[in-house]
Amino acid sequence: MTTSDIIALGAFALSIYTVISSEMKSRRSDKEQKVIKEEQDRLRKLLLEKETKSAINEKKAELGARIAKVAKNNYKLKVYNRGKVEARNIGIHFPDNDGNEYLVMSDVKDKLPYEILHPHQTIEIIASPHFGRKTKYRIKITWDDDYKRANEESFILSI
Which residues contact residue 81 at a Cβ distance below 8 angstroms, ignoring those fewer than 6 apart? Predict the structure, then answer.
């Protein structure tokens, strides 16, 4: 083997090493790019989901209810809208048929169904809980809003 053969063999070995090294770096880079792309896709999906939820919440009324003590032996059922849009056609239902035990039903019939409850407004219904009766009651509130018709939510009220 002559000197030129040794140099040629060395150059060949070096070129093989360079090709293999380059291929390994390329594969490693491709894996890193794939991981980065998957992470970007995941973040895009999360952002889209967040924006979708935000857009939906912009169309929803969010109703709540509680019994508040206004003065000594004077209570009111307060139904309020803490959402961003108006609620329409608000109704109250009593799953246990016990509304007359703690509410003045003539006031309920006079005020409900309530046509429009704007954001941050409240409907007040006279409550007259009797001592010796239950202290927890269930109600279901129904309403329509820009998101959908016939929304409903149940609440447990404590006196």
Answer: 61, 62, 63, 87, 117, 118, 119, 120, 121, 122
